[in-house]
Structure formats: structure tokens, C-alpha cells
Predict the structure.
Amino acid sequence: MSVRTALLPTLVLGPREAGAAWDVLQASANLALEDAQQLRLRELLVAIDHWAQLGEAPMMALLPLGNGADLLVKAAWGSAISPTALPMAHAMLLPPGMARASLLGTRLLPLLPAPDGSRQFGRQPIPVPPVLPDAPLRPGWPDIGLAWRNRVVIVPEAADVVPALATVLATSGPPEQAGRITGWATTAMLPAVGDFDPWEACQLLVLGPGRPQPYGHPYLPARFNILGEPEPVVPPPAAWRAWTAFRDAAGAQAMLPWDMDMTVEPVPALLARLADHADDDRARRPALLTALLNGEGPQGFDLRATGLALLAGWLAQDGAAALPEAEFRALGSSRLIAALDSLDRPGEALAHLSDAHLLWLAEALVNHPLAAGHLGCAMVLRLIDVPGGAALVPQLVAQRLEGAGGLDLERLASRRVIEALGPGQAALALKVTRLGLRQPAATLAGLGTSLAALQLAGATAR
């Protein structure tokens, strides 16, 4: 793997004397830290000091230092160096992007020697060769789902730690979510100090034999089969599967980039937000609607509800006025009716429709199950003002009465509707009036409707 040539700052960390707090014992001249990074380094020193007091075996870690920089650390307790040596750590400061370019630092590990009790290491920066060797990988290991959950991998031999570490990092995916991985450690004994939280900073723990496990912390253990292979991938969260399904369905549409905050967003809200963003490109709106309305997405998500919601918003906005007749009808009357019926005020959307679109939908609404809903009422009131629409009014009114109730019925029981029914519909007019007068909110307007119905009945009788 090629990495641009760099001189990495080096540090030696440890207590200056027995019982003292950890400090920077030696640092190369090119070490330059921002104020926030200085504060994080002080927090890390306290955390490593706590680890050293536990007398655990040597450990390695990649710890985010802030503003994109990382600290690659190898630390050892005194007895692991020599019987009389104090605990110590060697560290390298990795500039922004270096850890990810070198597979989160695993290819840089050979450049970092284990602590030997001296301070020689921190006197000079370490040159990074133009080409880094690949880290040793475990052949045949599947992705254990590090991108979705913090994982702890417990290996049987100390020699397995680095290969397991490199393999898990190399197989984590997909790339949209792999960016959440920022650090790792070979110990579970680093405590939280100040703003440093190891459970947030280190998404992967690889523990050798005898290491204490992170009980009570949000790590999912990787279990192994008899061949020494880890369990299959952790299922991705629903939000990512929904985002992927929308991306695949939308094709060339403008897409909001994946963001880790989306994992906690309810799927319907996320899909609605994605649709609103993609809908900004009005020229491609029909293609997006068609793709979403075609049904189930590749990730198992039914995108039809999202398509209907987008279509409903479009109809409410301008009645699809910019859509040619052929493309409007290509969406299908059933989909358009379902979208209109999902609106709280379908009448406002119907008001935007052209007369041709309205009559076509009204014909489809006859004998449609939703004709008995509030959309049927709104359609009746709209048809009264459309040339040629009066012929459909009696059928829609009759079907609306089958499920009549509430304010919709009061709107139907109006003088305008009774007059639109016309001669020959006296029985239907009287039924509308009778049901309207039974409503708790019936007023003098209802009496006026009744009078109109009686006049219609009288005219029919003559």
C-alpha cells in the first residue's frame, strides 16, 4: 500500500518516578499539538496510567486525538520491560487521514517498537516508507459487522491479536458506514477520563488470552465456529437498509449522503426526508415517483408508501400541473387516488387539478373503495364546478352515503349538492337531507337543504 512519505512525531509516555502521574517523557522536535489535542493527550495519559496500575499485559491502541489526528500507542507495564522498569508507552502522532489510509494504523504497527525502558524512541521522528507492507490477514474471515456495532473479538493466542485486528478492520463495511470506526484497543481496561470515552473512541477490541472482558459495556462479542471463523455479519440497522433501498430505486436522483446520525432516525421520517431532497430536481420527479411506486426495494423495504407520500405532497403543492397528460395517467388512477386520500384536505389538491385530470380520476373513483371516504365528498364538491362533472355526482353521492358520518356528510348535505343532483334524483336528495338533519351539528343550513330537496322532489313529481 502506498502512503506519501512523512515524518511522524514520536513520544515516550510514562511516570517520571515511581508513583508519579504519567507525563510526556520525550518527544521529537516536530511534535506540534493544538490546545484541544493537548487536553486530550492529558486525558489519555491518565487513562493509560490507570491501565498500568492494573498490571495487565502489554497493550496496543489507536486513540483519536481530535481534529482528525490519532495516537498510535504501544504500552507495557514495568515487569514486561524489565524487573525494575517503570511502566512506559511508545506513541506516534498520525496526521489526519493517515490512520485510515494505513487501515486504521495496523500497517504502521511495525514502525512502532515496544517500550524498552529507554527514551531513545522519542528523540527522532519516524519516516514512513513510500510503500507500507500489508498487515497479516486471516484468510476466509467474513465481515463480522464492525460497521454496525462495537465488537470485541477474543482470540486464543497472543500471536492472533494483530492478524485478527487487521482482518476485522479490513473486512468492515459497507463504506458508507465504515467511517464510524475511529479507533481500537487490545485492552478493555482503559477508563473514561474527562471527555475521553473509550467506548466511543474504540469501536473494536481484540483481546488475547487472559484479558478481562468489557462486561457491562456496549460491545457485541464475536463468537467463533470450530474452524476458528467469526460469526456472520451483524445485520445493518433499518435506517441504512432504507437509505440503500431509496438510493438504488432513485438511481440518478440527487441523494442525501449517508450520515451516521441517520441510524437513530425513524425509517418513515428518513425516507420522507430523502424524498423531499430528491424531489428538488423537478425534471426527474416522474422517474423518481415511478421508481418508488414500483414496489419493494432491494433491501426488503416497501417504498410504495414513500412514493405515495411524495406523490401526495406533489398533488397538494400544485396538482402535478407541470406533468404532461400521458405521464400523469401513467402513474395510475389507483395510486393517484390513494395519494389524494392520504391528505387531510384532499379538496385543496383537487382544486389544483385540471378539468381533464379531475374527470378522469372521478370516473375511476366511481366503484372505488375510497369513494365512500372523505375523498369522495371532496370530489363531489369539486365536480359541481367542472363542465361535464355533474353526470358523476349522483353515483359518488350514493356511494358516499354508505359510509356517511361526521362533517363530510354535513358538507354533502348542502343546497349546492342537492341542486347538482338534478331532476330524477329526488329520492337521493331526500336521503342526503334526512341524514344531514340527524347530525348533532345540524343548523338552519340543514333546513335550507331540506327545502331544496323538497323543491327538487316537487319538480320531479310534476
In short: Residues 35-53 form the longest helix (19 residues). Confidence is low (pLDDT under 50) at residues 439-448. The chain has 20 helices and eleven strands. Residues 6-221 form one domain.
